[in-house]
Amino acid sequence: MFKRLFGRERHSNRIIADALYEEIVAAARQPHFYSQWNVPDTPLGRFEMLSLHMFLFQHRLHAESAEARNIAQVLIDEFFLDVDHSLRELGISDVGVPKRMKRLAKMYYGRTAAYADAIERQDDAALEAALCRNIRPDQEEWAESPQLAAYVKAAVENLASQPVEAICAGKVHYPQADDQGK
User: Fold this and answer.
1) pTM of the complete model
2) What is the distance between the alpha carbons of residues 73 and 163, in angstroms, rounded to a whole number?
3) pLDDT at 130
4) Backbone dihedral region of 92: left (phi > 0), alpha (psi from -120 to 50 degrees) or beta?
5) What is the average pLDDT across 10-25?
6) Any idea where the Ubiquinol-cytochrome c chaperone domain is (predicted)?
């Protein structure tokens, strides 16, 4: 038992989780989102993009093996730990963090349900509306939502083409946002 908790297997799982999470964060931080598609470069805007990319990762692994689903769970736990840490860095008090985490978790799961529904129904208009409603709630219409929706669909296809064994080994790749529409 102690070998599993403290041994090589635990260390290699941490390396895999870290590698996957780094790729998800890097994809969410692509400058094109913020400079060309007018995603707000704010803590909430960055949360939205990280949530979107976490959703894409989760969506890819949801129907896979128990091992893949376990990795997906480790990554969602890592995501919420990162959000918690970010709130604390922003100066939210220890008393305020749990309340905000509850609200952000509710936001995340609501968004992912809307994205999943639109993707499963292949409803581009619903996907664009969900992206606009979540990422640019300050605008009734967001001119760049079709580009982001095209990116989301490309990411779904891109992730689906990657072998689950490679993902479970810590290798995942997202498309480049600036390649969309070319």
Assistant:
1) 0.87
2) 18
3) 96
4) beta
5) 84
6) 36-172
Nearest Cα to Cα of residue 50 among 26, 66, 71, 67: 26
Residue 149 in any domain: the answer is: yes
Cβ-contact 37, 177 below 8 angstroms: yes
Q: Which of 10-19, 31-40, 159-168 has the lowest mean pLDDT?
A: 10-19
In a domain, 174, yes or no: no
Neighbouring C-alpha atoms within 13 Å toward the C-beta of 119: 21
Residue 38 domain flag: yes
- Here the tokens at position 157 are 């296809």
| Tens-place pLDDT, residues 97-120 | 777 778 888 889 999 999 999 999
| DSSP secondary structure string for all residues of the chain | -HHHHHSHHHHHHHHHHHHHHHHHHHHHT-HHHHHTS----SHHHHHHHHHHHHHHHHHHHTTS-HHHHHHHHHHHHHHHHHHHHHHHHTT--TTHHHHHHHHHHHHHHHHHHHHHHHHHTT-HHHHHHHHHHHH-TT-S--TTHHHHHHHHHHHHHHHHTS-HHHHHTT------GGGTT-
Amino acid at 25: V
CB-facing half-sphere around the CA of 121: CA atoms within 13 A:
11
Domain that holds residue 109: 1-169
Q: Is 179 domain-assigned? A: no
pLDDT of residue 123: 97
